[in-house]
Write a structure and sequence with these properties.
alpha+beta; 6-stranded antiparallel sheet; two-stranded antiparallel sheet; 35% helix
Length: 148
């Protein structure tokens, strides 16, 4: 993965302060990743799963928030795949004392801890086949992690 960045030093222009949504669009416009179309499609799915979700760039990738708390973050470091990390923000929280946060009826989640899971996506066929389940599990993740 490579991100093209032209600094003010190399262009001779003053840097323009972009709004947070513009920063995400700019990040994606400059993203060089073999699965860029898939990443953009998954972004649309996540944003459509809940109208209150916002996004920004965190950990060098798009991250999605609910009530200003990170909940879903792309991990773009894989070769031939990318991951979505579903989490409860940067700070450790006391969410799941008795097992996973909820029963994953979609089968998409690979639970890392009781309150953190990963979804791995490999190509557009994979994204298309998981589209509905992905929207469902993101909406459920938001509901469960924000009600605690």
């Amino acid at each position: 993965m490579t991100i093209n960045k032209k600094s003010a030093e190399t262009t001779g222009k003053k840097p323009i302060k972009l709004s947070i949504p513009q920063q995400v669009v700019e990040f994606l416009n400059n993203l060089e990743h073999p699965l860029k179309k898939e990443i953009e499609e998954v972004r649309k799915i996540i944003l459509s799963s809940n109208e209150s979700i916002t996004e920004h760039i965190k950990w060098n990738a798009p991250s999605f928030c609910f009530n200003n708390e990170d909940r879903v973050t792309f991990n773009l470091q894989g070769k031939g795949f990318f991951r979505l990390i579903l989490h409860c923000g940067a700070k450790v929280k006391d969410h799941a004392e008795n097992g996973n946060l909820f029963e994953d009826t979609t089968g998409l989640l690979d639970w890392v801890t009781t309150d953190r899971a990963i979804i791995k996506l490999t190509n557009m066929n994979d994204v298309d086949s998981k589209k509905e389940k992905l929207a469902t599990v993101v909406a459920k993740w938001i509901e469960v992690t924000c009600s605690k």
